[in-house]
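Lab meeting, item 3. Inverse folding demo.
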């Protein structure tokens, strides 16, 4: 039980750290942009706008990745550490290894009968990742502002560098638009419930493979 309690605390700390990253990083990018742009000449502003657009796109991907990781941890805590699953506790790292193995088998078509979407508890979906929408819309607003600002700077201070940077920013904005549609709030909101379904199948897979013995053999 002590090991499980320690794991619970560790995973909760990881969730809190991920949440801090999600909220703090876009603010750092904004502060960096405002601080640098106020000291640059017009001819270099296009290049800085390109840097900011690249950072925003990267941070959006980073945010989604952290939320996916957080959803995986939350679902694991709910099912494994809060006693909703059968079988003994074997630890996060061991379970995560089988999680990856199961996804590999699933992507290879070995589990075509598994339809995660039909197994999701849709009534529980609205309770997941409610802090994501403001972060999502903040990224959209910042990316749009950078794109408009870059075009304006290019118009005012025309140069080859500014034109090239603005062109790259338009491409990044198009890519960002596609990614923001792919990871819209309604998709992210369902991550915890999707992971609950996946973990149930992973635990069944572990039991069949002998990696998760019966509850009688549970560690204390």
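The presenter then showed the designed sequence:
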């Amino acid at each position: 039980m002590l090991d499980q309690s320690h794991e619970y605390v560790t995973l909760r700390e990881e969730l809190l750290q991920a949440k801090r990253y999600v909220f703090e990083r876009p603010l750092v990018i904004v502060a960096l942009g405002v601080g640098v742009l106020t000291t640059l000449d017009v001819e270099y502003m296009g290049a800085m706008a390109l840097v900011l657009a690249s950072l925003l796109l990267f941070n959006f991907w980073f945010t989604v990745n952290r939320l996916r990781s957080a959803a995986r941890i939350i679902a694991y805590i709910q099912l494994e550490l809060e006693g909703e699953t059968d079988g003994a506790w074997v630890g996060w790292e061991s379970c995560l290894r089988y999680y990856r193995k199961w996804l590999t088998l699933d992507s290879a078509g070995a589990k075509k009968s598994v339809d995660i979407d039909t197994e999701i508890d849709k009534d529980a979906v609205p309770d997941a990742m409610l802090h994501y929408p403001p972060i999502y819309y903040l990224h959209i607003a910042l990316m749009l502002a950078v794109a408009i600002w870059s075009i304006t700077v290019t118009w005012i201070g025309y140069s080859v560098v500014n034109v090239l940077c603005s062109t790259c920013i338009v491409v990044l904005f198009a890519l960002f638009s596609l990614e923001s549609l792919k990871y819209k709030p309604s998709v992210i909101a369902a991550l915890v419930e999707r992971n609950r379904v996946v973990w149930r199948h992973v635990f069944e897979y572990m039991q069949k493979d002998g990696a998760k013995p019966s509850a009688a053999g549970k560690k204390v």
